[in-house]
Amino acid sequence: MAYMKTEQTACILCSRNCGLRVDIDTGRFARIRGNEEHPISKGYVCQKAARLDHYQNHDDRLQHPLKRQPDGSFTRVPWDEALTDIAARLLSIRERHGGDAFAFVGGGGQGNHLGGAYSRQVLAAMKSRYVYNSLGQEKTGDFWVNGRLFGSQTCHTTEDVEHADYVLFIGCNPFQSHGIPNARDTLRDIKKNPHRTMVVIDPRRTETAKMAHIHLQLRPGTDAVLISAMLAIILRNGLHDRAFLSERCTGFETLEKELLTIPIEEYVRRADIPLADVERVARGFATSHSACVRIDLGIQHTLHTTLNGYLEKLLYLLTGNFGRKGGNNLHSFLLPLLGHTDERQPRKGKPLKRTAHHRMHPIGGIYPPNILPDEVLHPGEDRLRAVFVDSSNPVVTYADSQAYERAFKSLDLLVVVDVAMTETARLAHYVLPAASQFEKWEASGFNLEFPENFFHLRHPLLEPRGDSLPEPEIYTRLLEKMGIIPTRFPLLSRFARVHRRTPLAYLGALAVALAGHRAWMPFVASIMYRTLGPTLPAGAAVASCILPLAMAYAEQHRAAVRRAGHSGNRWTLGVELFRAILDGRSGVVLSRHEFADTWSLIKTKDRRVHLAIPEMLEELRALKTEAPSGTEYPFVLMAGERRTYNANQIYRDPAWRKVDKEGVMRMHPDDAALLDMANGAHASCRSVRGEIQVIIQIDDTVRPGVVTLPHGYGMRFRDSAPLGPQINVLTSSGHCDPFSKTPFHKYVPVHIRKLDEASA
Ligand SMILES: Nc1nc2c(c(=O)[nH]1)N[C@H]1C(S)=C(S)[C@@H](COP(=O)(O)OP(=O)(O)OC[C@H]3O[C@@H](n4cnc5c(=O)[nH]c(N)nc54)[C@H](O)[C@@H]3O)O[C@H]1N2
Ligand SMILES: Nc1nc2c(c(=O)[nH]1)N[C@H]1C(S)=C(S)[C@@H](COP(=O)(O)OP(=O)(O)OC[C@H]3O[C@@H](n4cnc5c(=O)[nH]c(N)nc54)[C@H](O)[C@@H]3O)O[C@H]1N2
Ligand code: SF4
Ligand SMILES: [Mo]
Q: Does any domain span residue 634?
């Protein structure tokens, strides 16, 4: 009989990271199902998780470090040789051009953030602050607004969909993309409860919209006018929460003055929605007992991204649906996914770093991928010359694939750390194989829940492939090769061994060591990994960096951590929390906050929400005179839809898809008729930037004039031609939000032409 075991882990395909129970049979996942013991997902999974063996086992998996040869082929090299050469080249680039010649891209996808604590150390070693990652192409506009409203870009909001009587989904399709707890069950609950209302604002009649009580099928890119009209309706009818606004907010009068000038009827017309429907939703939202708003890429990847984020937040702020059950709230973080980098007020001693070419500042510590190719390609001496890419595939996933390819080919050093041979890895000087997320200790920083927050440390289930290594080992070895940290810390290691039951004693010794070697401070993750790590139970060395985070978390949220069942005094509570994290195979509840705690999580000095943001009010005013841009491209392409069988670039083997293998283009029947196209017709889709071939599927859920293509295709599996649409061949880096420089992927003007058999 084959060797079979059952283990707990989590799905790594989206930010929900649902708990899983998997049966493993000689290195393969024989059966995958939801884990009832997971504190949040409680057994929930979607169809994508069942296919995870296609992530774990496929032909593009990397097994050995590879070095690119002058002819473009790759040869196997030993780790030692690869890391020695990379270290030397990094140091020489730092020496000759300074740390600003280096950037780090990625650092954790949908399920692997634990390595981030280690990979970020390379930046410190290079004395660079340039981190580019996917949050910088979707969420930084939102973070920027949070910084202004709530006092810090780390004040991230969440929505209590579970308890809200009125739920507004704007530009998101949770039925497919999830993003809220146990999405499909949650949606069904709202749908069948006569006391609750679900509204979807989306240009497409999505799977979620079909379940909604009201669907406002707006014209793409018109959220800003539609939401501002809703806000004006609320104010004009006196439906705002005066008590909340005067007790909890500042700047309301300034804001009110602006909102009252909004020409409601005209704006609603621009969005192409019946006025009565908009009034009904504005009223319903404002007058229900509890209401919340859930948003995502539909407003973040379209025109007016940052303004959309501001207006969406005003919906729940003006109606007092903030800091309460069933509303929107702030939440805690265990892993610090974000920093605070206010472009107006740099922190003491840390001047804000603007990029050399675009002079772009970071938001939440993150730079926008849209500008990266220019930062490499511009002719200045101060251009980027070396890039590390980890857990990301920029050549396929960031705007303007052609520019990325050109930029990456021109670098002095490109190193890619991935589990698979990606399109980006093919351009690298070195490709370093990471162990997969089921072969190492892992965790995600997507602990974004409120009032109950949780964390799931996942244990390795399988042996790493070939020579592949977990990221913490890769980056620690690199720091050692660079001579940034010593290879041994005999005193600290001994201390950790002797005091293995009292981590507090170890932390004391660590503090003393760091006081003597201040230069080690940024590398504390690797130092703990090498010293405390070996003393942790079950080989959990990598998790040692969670100890100080758990201590800080317990200190900051003491009452909430105790409410979640952890005990201990001021000093030991964090240690107990750390132990619970190490012990829990299905994740642990970190904290149970009370809704009013949102006010202790807010970071403004007066603990009020600062409603009036001058830049946003100016943008709001500018909507009045905005002219529709005439263009030779008659269609709006939404480039990057979430569907049943896409999951970013995490699955490379196309065999994982049960349907939609080609990644079809959805087109309204009237448009298909005009272009004389039937289902399955081949077409060319051309933007100002590039051209790809697509297969048409006639679909009346899209508006006429709008077409959609899925995200997560266009990979070259086993060196094949690109499989499915390479959507970022069509997108351009300059087509982006002025504040955050995040792309307008859902608003790509395109021209579509039928192809005959011969040219297809
Ligand atoms: N199946 C699947 N799930 C995923 C992923 C995946 O690849 N596949 N990826 C994950 C990731 S990384 C993310 S960020 C999330 C994203 O999750 P979502 O943002 O929910 O997913 P999308 O389908 O990209 O976009 C949401 C909706 O925006 C609508 N939209 C387009 N233009 C506009 C507009 O102008 N206004 C409004 N109001 N709506 C508009 C689209 O019609 C679409 O229904 O999904 C996550 N989940
Ligand atoms: N046009 C358009 N472009 C888009 C989007 C869109 O809607 N439209 N969506 C955007 C969004 S929201 C996002 S989040 C991005 C996602 O795009 P990326 O940031 O590029 O990330 P992923 O596609 O999630 O996966 C990246 C890589 O991580 C690797 N990987 C998996 N596990 C591990 C591991 O344990 N260690 C390491 N080192 N690597 C691992 C995978 O093999 C894969 O190559 O795409 C964006 N691009
Ligand atoms: S893809 Fe997301 S929702 Fe589906 S099982 Fe995985 S983590 Fe859960
Ligand atoms: Mo994303």
A: yes
Q: What CATH number did the domain enclosing 362 receive?
A: 3.40.50.740
Q: How far is the CA of 382 from the centre of ligand 2 (A)?
A: 28
Residue among 321, 311, 316, 312 nearest 289 (CA): 321
52 with 80, same domain: the answer is no
Q: What is the distance in A from the centroid of ligand 3 to the CA of 82? A: 36
Ligand nearest the Cα atom of residue 176 = 1
Q: Give tens-digit pLDDT for 298-345.
A: 999 999 999 999 999 999 999 999 999 999 999 999 999 999 999 997
- Whole-number Å distance, alpha carbon 700 to ligand 1 midpoint, is 18
pTM above 0.90, yes or no: yes
- Nearest ligand, CA 60: 2
Alpha-carbon Rg for the chain, nearest whole angstrom, is: 26
* Pocket mutation for ligand 3, best pick of 22, 44, 46 (most atoms within 8 Å of C-beta): 46
Q: Name all contacts of 355-358 with Cβ < 8 Å and 24+ positions apart.
A: 355/130, 356/100, 356/380, 356/382, 356/383, 356/384, 357/383, 358/741
Let me know if 228 is exposed, middle or buried by CB neighbors in 10 A (0-12, 13-18, 19+): buried
pLDDT value, residue 1: 45
Give the count of domains, the chain.
5
- 202 and 80 assigned to the same domain: no
474-485 average pLDDT score: 98
Could you tell me if the CB of 111 is within 6 A of ligand 1? no
Alpha carbons 311 and 409: distance in angstroms, whole number:
41
Residues 52 and 92 occupy one common structural domain: no
- Cβ of 201 closer than 6 Å to ligand 1, yes or no, is yes
4, with CB counted inside 10 A (0-12, 13-18, 19+), is exposed
| Residue that has been written with the tokens 């001693």 in this structure | 349
Ligand 1: distance of its center to the CA of 639 in Å? Answer: 10
Q: What is the token pair recorded at 363?
A: 């938001």
- Domain range for 37 is 5-57
Strands 430-433 and 291-295: unpaired
Domain co-membership, 40 together with 75: no
Among all chains, which residue has been given the structure tokens 């319903």? 284
Of all ligands present, the nearest one to the C-alpha of 641 is: 1
In a domain, 428, yes or no: yes
* C-beta of residue 366 within 8 angstroms of C-beta of residue 135: yes
